[in-house]
Amino acid sequence: MYMVQRIIILLCIGIIVSSQTIRPISSVQIPGKPVALSYDAYGFVYIADEKGNMYKLDSLGKQMVNYSPPRRGTITSIEAFRNVNIFIFYRDFQVFYYIDRFLNATQTLQFNPDKVGYARIATPALDQSVWLVDETDFSLKKYNTTYNSLDINTPLDLIIDPKVYDMNFMREYQNLLFINDATSGILIFDNMGNYKTKLPVVGLTYFSFVDDYLVYSKGDGKIHKVHLYTYKDVIIESSEFTGMKEVYIVQQKIFGIKNNSIFIYSY
Fold first, then answer.
1. Which one, of 47, 128, 146, 131, lies nearest residue 84 by Cα?
2. End-to-end Cα separation, the chain, in angstroms
3. DSSP-derived pairing of the beta strands 54-57 and 45-49
4. Tens digits of per-residue pLDDT, 100-137?
5. Which strands, in side-by-side order, build the sheet including 23-29?
6. How far apart are CA 223 and CA 219, in angstroms?
7. 3-state secondary structure labels for all residues of 118-182
8. CB under 8 Å to 247, separation ≥6 — which residues?
């Protein structure tokens, strides 16, 4: 039996950006179907397609670098927000890579099978460890890559129903860990793995951050910016965003993926 959750009631304060202020800048088609997305603090975009290729684009959508990994397979997640290396996780192979900004592989690591059974999702921590959700014992773990050991192990069966869940994305931001469960919402933990609360937004596959806001879209033409501490929900609405479920905001630009293309707007 999982426990009753503390759930945040989002306070919508209205639409602050109208469709008239959204200006398309450019768009670029990705050769394959995008399956993973990230971005760095300088506005560069990193997109992986279903064949395992990765593309680096600049803030105007110009293709800069292509990356063909040594191991062919679907990339589960990319995390490029760190200033040094880019994190790439393959669920099928239970392996993660670190590559540099030129998309050259610098390190390949695997989880210690005595500590991690099967990592469903994973993301880098601020201290160079790796957060992951282990499906074998249904737990949140913080894996120490230096000693191949666990620093944190938090059971999840008291937080969500282990029989009904779809955890598909996670990321650490401002000393908080956010885990997306498409069936119940975005779970929020502190940096010690303690559960805090949940944003009751279901059906997501991706979210991002800008300043003190969590950003998401359900593809209905609305981009939500939820303040991390007041939980006020600010909405940016435009028909341009219809069909986009992966969006992020950086340097006063909105980036969104629809079908096999990424679209860039100013606002």
1. 128
2. 46
3. antiparallel
4. 888 888 889 999 999 999 999 999 998 889 999 999 99
5. 23-29, 261-266, 253-258, 246-250
6. 8
7. CEEEEEECCCCCEEEEECCCCEEEEEECCCCEEEEEEECCCCCCCCCCCEEEEEEECCEEEEEEC
8. 206, 208, 215, 216, 217, 223, 241, 254, 255, 256, 257
| CATH code of residue 132 | 2.120.10.30
Q: How many residues does the chain have?
A: 267
SS3 21: helix
Tell me how far apart the alpha carbons of residues 86 and 41 are, in angstroms, rounded to a whole number: 12
Q: How many domains does the chain have?
A: 1
**Could you tell me if residue 4 is inside a domain?**
no
Let me know if residue 2 belongs to a domain: no
Please write the tens of the pLDDT for every residue from 170-229: 999 999 999 999 999 999 999 999 999 999 999 999 999 999 999 999 999 999 999 999
**74 C-beta neighbours (distance < 10 Å), count:** 15
Two tokens, residue 21:
């202020």
Domain that holds residue 121: 11-266
* DSSP letter assigned to residue 20: G
